[in-house]
Amino acid sequence: MSPRRKNNDHHEPDDPDIAQAMRARRQELGLSVSAMAARAGVSEQTWRNYEYGRTQVRGDKQMGVWEALEWEPPTHWKDLAGLRAILQAGTTSAGPGGAMPMGSGSFGPGFDIPDEAFAAFEDLDPEELAAQAAADLPVPDWDDIPTVLSEVYSQRLARTLGEDAARCFALGVLLYDMSITENLESMAELPRGTHLGELDDTHIGSTLPQLWLTRYDYEFVFQLRESFRDMTRRLVSGVTTDDDPMACTIAEILVLHDVFNLGGTIAASRGAGIDEDRWEGWVDALSGPDRPAHMLVAMGMIPPADAPEHFDNWFKPLPGPFTPDWGGAQDGAGATTAADRGDATVTPLRRGH
Fold first, then answer.
1. Measured on CA atoms in the order 303, 309, 311, 317, is the torsion positive or negative?
2. 97 backbone dihedrals φ, ψ, rounded to 5°
3. Which domains does the chain possess?
4. In terms of pTM, does the model score above 0.70?
5. How far from 338 is each of 69, 129, 345, CA to CA, in Å?
6. C-alpha–C-alpha distance, residues 138 and 1, integer Å
7. How far apart (Å, rounded) are the C-alpha atoms in residues 261 and 271?
8. Alpha-carbon span 209 to 213, nearest angstrom
9. Which regions of the chain are under pLDDT 50?
């Protein structure tokens, strides 16, 4: 729980008296409706709807609203803190593959587990362990993702690569945003120049090319988050045309890979039938048939200083970014499902061994 929270009362979005509780808490904080709405990141009318019981707080708005009220998170979000801890510790295929520390007694803040509960996991390998742990956490049901995560669910992606790809992307966006924001909050409390490699837990740091780990400082991570959010807004807002690329920079290509990695790993653990080849196919369909994301993550050599793949150029627009076949209807089942355009500019690099 955040140290600034004063009110430890627990409230759920579907409590019968939630509207009255929200109004009473706002008054207790001495805030007007407009001030509270701004603090929660919703419109004034939306907040009035909450307080009059006309509208229940939507899933994608709950964390911001509960933070504004200085309440502990709803159960759904509180338990997702455990999922963040798993992801950041690298216990899914998105990370370095380390096993969950046995006997640690906790998956994250407020999510304590007795030591004897770990007995059932002792004979599992790291991937099975991650899948079992993820399956027990309350991420949105697969069928509910278009509604619960509507603000990051892309109709265009559903039309291009299929419903599963759109849901996988939306789930990955939720997890990636939580992970990178938590890393930023941790780095903001440390001396200037601190990099991701110095944090105790960082999923983001474990999935970026390790060659430049010590250069992933606060300013870099902040810029990476904004690039990620901008790419998501472009895709979800519907402004993307058939002539527009999905990823315009190397940074966005890296983010795209990690978003599908996270979404695919958790979706697979929930029985959605999303294996690694499938989500990697979606990444290739959106970023290029030369598999630039995979090359970058496994980078084992230093590219030339003027190459787009060099760290110094990650946020610079690609001179001729790959344009997906937005008009096609592809499932991304193979290694490459996008049209093989001649203007793709990301140069394949030698994979590390």
1. positive
2. 95, 15
3. 18-69 (1.10.260.40), 75-135 (no CATH), 142-313 (no CATH)
4. no
5. 46, 33, 15
6. 18
7. 16
8. 7
9. 1-7, 79, 82-118, 120-121, 124, 126, 331-353
